[in-house]
Automatic annotation (TrEMBL):
Signal sequence bounds: 1-19
InterPro entries in the record: DUF305_CopM-like, Ferritin-like
Keyword Signal set for record: yes
Domain DUF305 stretches: 74-129
Keyword terms, alphabetized: Signal
Name of the molecule in the record: DUF305 domain-containing protein
One family name in Pfam for this protein: DUF305
Amino acid sequence: MRAALLACLAALSMTAARADAQEHHHHGDAAATMPATAPAFVASTAKPFAALMDDAMAVMDAGMQQAPMNGNPEHDFITMMMPHHQGAVDMAKAVLLYTQDPEIRNLALGIIAEQQNEIKVMQAWLQRQPPKEETP
């Protein structure tokens, strides 16, 4: 069961990374891409749960602080919400490694599915937007 869960988490991470890379490739707007130095979250039992939660928060905070802003409220909201939603996904992945409580597991799986779906919706919205010059 644990091996299947770890394989599922790895597949979810790879799918999200591919979707993110595809969004950035197709968008073509350099301001909409995250810096290559942005930290990444790794869900692993090699760390205690509290450390994973700290990591998830640090990655989310860094992503939100590095979000490309252009002065358009809708754009800026979306670029900051994507790492925020990814933070929820990362936290849910962490709890899945450490809980056997069926209610919490179902909640975490639902969070992963819904937040990843909302990230895709936000990425699609960004792709539909014409490039806009950054405001000073």
